Amino acid sequence: MTVAAPGFLRPSQLARLNAEEEAAIAAACPGLGQRVAPEGRSDDVLWGPYVWMKTGHATDPDLRFAGSSGGALSRMLIHLVETGVVDAAVTNGADPDLPIGNVTVIAADPAEVAASAGSRYAPSAPLARLAELKADGRRFAFVGKPCDVAALRALIARDPSLNTVFPVLLSFFCAGVPSHAGGRAVLAALGTTLEDTAAFRFRGNGWPGRATARDRAGEERSMSYHDSWGQILSRHVQHRCKICADGSGLAADIVCADAWEADEAGYPLFDEGAGTSLIVARTAHGAALLADAETAGAIATQPFDVATLAAIQPGQRERRRALLARLAARRLAGLPIPRYTGLRLAAAARQNPLSRNVKNFLGMMRRSLRSRPRTE
Question: Rounded to 5 degrees, what angle do the CA atoms 94, 32, 154 make?
Fold first, then answer.
């Protein structure tokens, strides 16, 4: 994987691929499409199949503080390692050579997991080390973006031996991947530069936590999550993420997200407070692991009404409802679209007023016509 302007990770082909390799890539690549089946689970139009949803947090107060949204995902990783379900976790951490960037981390003890706690709004490619992880001999809990987990689940379907290497798949709600240019823009808004930055946190150390840059002299500058994500980073999300049908980890065993507090109108509040995670058991396997963590006292949970989720996750809600209109515009413009099966796109679109679907259709059509390849 190499960095391409304006700061996204892209695959760099080193040799010609044969037909079998091309077919394997096509079968696993979530960029080409995704298939989801309820298989006896509850199947929400917006949020997909699940066994149960709860809210909760890590019972360790330090980990709850360090995590972006209650520390439940980080605490689950520690619990899985401590109980011998896995030997280590594959997750993301800050790149020591690029503070606004990510690096894949193999965390084998609680301290290493805790050091990687907190959301990282930058490109990542945890599956780039797949061959190395397969040869390692250990069992891993894999944490990735929904697309990473969908790809790994598809690879496992083709090669069941990978199930031994990755017995647990975890994910989180994802609103899209910003480029490194987004991270630079946050630093500029803080009045500093990447060259002067020794360390950077996108979130965490509170809920939702502040984007914080520490310079080489030890001075810190920070801004709110509302300003860093809402005003800057979200504007640097790559276009492909805007036609993604899976922002909520449909292929994972366990998914965590922000269970925001909401105002009287139902809109999320971003006031600093004690972190609370939305915890989704997508599979029976995930539900059993979470129940074990509850029994062990690693996480504390409370009941959650899935009907309230659309209000406190408006970004996810609007993208899912808009997706069919956006895909229709791309198709009409002669551009390729992913093949989504079982993701209930038409039902989600019917939750939108016609005017909003038309607006999304026209906006995507304008963008698609501008980006369509021209022939001389």
Answer: 70
